[in-house]
Amino acid sequence: HPRDAIDIGDEVQVYVLELDDRQQRIALSIRRTLLDPWESVNENYQLEQIVTGTVTNVTDFGAFTVLPDGIEGLLHISEIADGTLTEPHSYVKRGDEVTIKIVRIEPERRRIGFTQAGLNFSRPTDSVNNDHAPAADAVENQDDASESTLLDDMDTLSDTAEDVGEQTG
Length: 169
Fold this sequence. Notes:
Blueprint: H1 2-5, E1 15-20, E2 25-29, H2 41-44, E3 50-59, E4 62-66, E5 72-76, E6 97-106, E7 111-115, H3 147-168
Parallel strand pairs: 5-7
Antiparallel strand pairs: 1-2, 3-4, 3-6, 4-5, 6-7
């Protein structure tokens, strides 16, 4: 949301997207004035690198996670915690900080994939803020998702993000 990025009275540089004389509106974009983090993703990140990200959205197929520079990718349900989770909403929520490992970087498609497999992550316990710990009945064995399913899920994110980006500028 714009109020998360700027405050009333802030001076900002903007890119003029469109002038609409008929409706007397101007469409502006701050994002278009910033450097695109995808242009330097290969210099800033490597496969198997462990990073910290913030969960931006949780869906039935995983958690979308943004890195500090704005690169956003998917932590697929089969890659959360020990890989046996069937309900990501029971484990993570929007705003959670998670430790993840980069397993896929596709700058040409603007895709990055994450995992928690093999990491020593701390699972929430009942004595600590446990409002998103996995419920016992929500954890069961699950086969790993196929690469194509993971990429299809990431395509859905990209299409949605592009739609939202064009609407919000």
